[in-house]
């Protein structure tokens, strides 16, 4: 989709003003990279900015996480046919593409505002300002991690991503959530001997996770490597425990770390400020 958007922009009249970019791309995850490579191949005058680094959401995946892909045609690079790849391999591919193609990506640069001025956009970031005929937002759906809203959530023992599961070996950890991210985090943590993993999920069963994840987490629960507490919620977090409401009672669970994976909040007010209309369907944006 984002590659086609870059192609469509390239098909239009390019800017005749050397001070005005044809395109500013926001985001250097898979979508932003695809658009960036297409812009490079199409000879557009562009710049790509990302508030973090190349890789987007994939950067926050656990180490050696398996990523499912599908055959695709990558601009400049060509055909990529692998369907199963580890996180590190995918990041290595992207970094190699960036290095070999010399695409104009500026990392650690966050978008602050987009305004209209004299027939083009003025894009302001934390490190500069760019004039552009077009702006392409490739910021994904992750947004800001959603909070559980429990007392103690602001302490340093609570985190919203898991990169290195082995550093929590031998600890008491609680994973909050029941989607693929939560299940995969629980499985990764349980893979280290001695780590006690409690999975807290507000629903009575897993509903929308991948079939392979469902099989693995079911086995982990049955063999005792993951202690699942369905229809539970976090009521509080302190230095030594996490309080879970479960079965009509509040249980104090020994705890060293809490991992929260309950989705993200899109930057809706910011997008609306940019003039983007947000449609809500079936309670979801």
Looking at this protein, list some descriptive labels.
285 residues; alpha/beta; five-stranded parallel beta sheet; 23% helix; elongated
Q: Would you kindly provide a written description of the structure presented here, covering whatever features stand out?
A:
By secondary structure, the protein is α/β, with parallel strands linked by helices. It contains six helices and 20 strands. A six-stranded mixed β-sheet has the order 7-2-1-10-9-8. A hairpin with a 3-residue loop joins strand 4 and strand 5. The mean pLDDT is 89.
What level of helicity do the residues show? Answer: 10-25%
The whole-angstrom Rg is 22 Å
Sketch the major β-sheet: 6 strands, mixed
Number of DSSP-assigned strands = 20
Put the structure in a nutshell.
This protein is α/β, with parallel strands linked by helices. 23% of the residues lie in helices and 32% in strands.
SSE inventory with pairings:
Elements: H1 2-11, E1 20-26, H2 30-41, E2 46-49, E3 66-68, E4 72-74, E5 78-80, E6 84-86, H3 87-101, E7 105-106, E8 111-117, E9 120-125, E10 129-137, E11 144-145, E12 158-159, E13 172-176, H4 180-190, E14 196-201, H5 211-222, E15 226-230, E16 233-237, E17 241-246, E18 249-254, E19 257-260, E20 264-265, H6 268-273
Parallel strand pairs: 1-2, 1-10, 2-7, 12-19, 13-14, 13-19, 14-15
Antiparallel strand pairs: 3-6, 4-5, 8-9, 9-10, 11-20, 16-17, 17-18
Helix pairs in contact: 1-2, 4-5
